[in-house]
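Running log. JK asked me to keep both predictions on one page so they can be read side by side. First protein, sequence followed by its tokens:
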Amino acid sequence: MNKLTQVETVDATPVAVIKPAKQTSLFSHARYVIGENPVTGIAFGMFVIIAACAVFGPLIAPYDPLASNTTSALQAPSAKHWFGTDQLGRDILSRLIAGARISLATAAAATLVSGAFGVLVGLVAGYVGGVVESIAMRIVDAFLALPFILLALALVATLGTGFGNIIVVMVIANWARYARLVRSEVLSVKQRDFVTLARIAGVRPLTIMLRHVLPNVLNSVVVLAILDVGRAIILESSLSFLGVGIQPPDVSWGLMLADGRTLMVFAWWLTTLPGLLIVFAVLSFNSLGRWLHARFDPRGQL
């Protein structure tokens, strides 16, 4: 019998009563997803830890991440320095915490701006159609056809390094993915009855796009944005590792990898620990995106 149906007895006669389905809370759904896949639980834990380090970094870092002490150079992990020190005697744990703030701030800002611009382009192109759609999609195709890292390197060579320029580079490299996704979603949504009725009622196109179409595509945009934060972390780390990203004295995980690569044979902690943090950060955002997709998708499947 259907789970929504409960049999009750009225005057000795069985009567089927329809009960509303019990709503699953967000916390219950998260527990279910984590229980089904322990890796997701680990990733969620790492996400919370990394986010806490980014927000409360200066309060929890045991040492100044920029303070050098040559007498403590290249010390292995110990009770004094849990993750060891680098070639200048700087505490690795403190630098990892400081790097979390830079790496996540860069990735989050780039994702927010590129998502907003891509949503705007995809929304207009999908709803207006015609020549506007054709031109916009050809530009999107051109950006998507360019290799990700090569495009970023070319833009950095043109704009220069620095926090602001890195965000601009990542926005230019990522916005087309949002535009393509939103355009495809809009093509489906604008054929629905409520949009047709709004047009018949004389509602302005801008109002239809913002009030009726946009809310129906935001779920997919949010999932892509969460997944894109991990992608942005990889891009920022790659650029910093190549020397064209975040510059000293600022700290980022990619920059730490670059500083320790020549000493990794003698001091494994210089590159292993930042590399593991990058892996876990990307894994945590991918798992969060998968969970949100399962929450938003009625089928619960990717």
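And the second, directly underneath as requested:
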Amino acid sequence: MKILSDIIGHEGIGNFTANFFTRMPYSVPSGAKNFTQKLTWEVIKDILDDNKSILRIVKNGVMTRDYASMSFEEAQKFHQMGHTLLLKNAEKSSKELLNLADDFSKSFKTEVDIQLYCTPEGHNAFGWHYDVEEVFIIQAKGSKHYTIRPNTIHPNPLVKSIPKDLGYEKETSDIEIKVLMKEGDFLYIPSGWWHVAETQSESMHISIGLMPRSVIDIVEHLPNYLAKNSFWRTRFPVHQSFETIEDKISFYKEGFETLSKDLSKIIQDEDFILDFLTNNSRNSES
């Protein structure tokens, strides 16, 4: 956590991981002042020229172009007309950003996606929304005013669980956190928290997104592990006859109870835990 330690301060890392990470937003004014040069228009040009990242063009909540293929000059014309330029997987074309991604990846044992946002004054990229990633933001240029709220509609989201309609209008939480981000400031927004950003002056920011393991990863790991066990390869008694549906349910209930007891032992076994940790690391380190 060298970079995060440089931003937060070594003494504050323990407090952040224990009390804020995945729980609450956290900001550090001027904490990222040494990292602002990682995002400049020269960097944007180099990344676009390299053509390895995904370019999205957004204006006030509307996706104008997705997976766009265009030159730096063409992209700048959209920016001049009020559109946000959003570059996903920017670390693929920048050694500086790759080093940033690698540090966070090793620190949190997960893959990292770095997105770059270039937003004109008086505009915003998206309206109220939440992300499935844990998001770390470095304000490289200009200023943005963030409003952040907890999510009681769909907390702890996963990619596969996000509904088409996020349902912000149904949110009833009265908690609202406001953060003015200026050049060199740092902000962490936990996965699932609602947020919207209003650009005060032409803004450029780096978004570091990561998704640590979730509980459902354990469930998804189970099939391959259980398939090694002959007991779990036992066939269902499809030939079994039952006089009533109640008899059938009773029969399977008894069988499921046996499975439940065995499963409880398995997921507490050290061999299973080590197998899960070894095979579910999302970066090069286990």
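Observation for JK regarding the second prediction: The domain at 2-210 is CATH 2.60.120.650 (Jelly Rolls).
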